[in-house]
Design brief:
With 141 residues, the protein is mostly beta strands. It has a single domain (15-128), classed as Neuraminidase (6 Propeller), CATH 2.120.10.30. The chain is built from no helices and eleven strands. It has strands spanning 15-16, 21-22, 28-34, 41-47, 55-58, 69-71, 77-82, 89-94, 101-102, 110-116, 123-128. The chain is globular and about 60 Å long. The protein starts with 14 loop residues before the first strand and ends in a 13-residue tail after the last strand.
């Protein structure tokens, strides 16, 4: 939808199941999209103006489609948290379909979020343990 209030335009016939992330130049949107007929979820690169995805790829089972995703500064790949080693580490995945590359190699704790510097040379990470507690509350005897 244009800022002036024009009618909304559907960008895809797929269902959005993740946060959408705009490309550095604003021309594309990276998101996990689900085919409403088959239930298949794929990582897709959709033109911001609408139309067929420019890129669509199965999401590895070690990636959380609802997780944190970010564009690399060059616009040719994206970064996501992957837990194939048992701990979530940052990986990059090129849009040309070549294999992903592990960027961080942490052995413990979890990455909760990340952000690249505009030039793509530095990264800020939020890390720490995940605490989970179960509490049973009973009333009466």
């Amino acid at each position: 939808m244009e800022l002036g209030g024009a009618s909304p335009v559907a960008l895809s016939d797929q269902l959005l199941v993740s946060k959408r992330v705009y490309s550095p130049d604003g021309t594309c949107i990276l998101a996990a999209l689900m085919d409403p007929k088959t239930g298949t979820v794929k990582g897709s690169l959709v033109p911001a103006s609408g139309g067929a995805p420019r890129y669509s790829r199965d999401i590895p089972s070690t990636l959380d489609p609802m997780g944190v995703v970010g564009w690399m500064a060059d616009g040719g790949s994206f970064a996501a948290l992957d837990d194939r080693s048992g701990i979530r580490n940052l990986w990059t995945f090129p849009f040309d379909g070549s294999p992903g590359k592990q960027i961080t190699h942490f052995q413990r704790s979890e990455i909760h979020g990340f952000a690249w510097s505009p030039d793509g040379k530095r990264i800020a990470l939020s890390r720490g343990p995940i605490e989970q507690n179960v509490v049973l509350i009973k009333t009466g005897s």
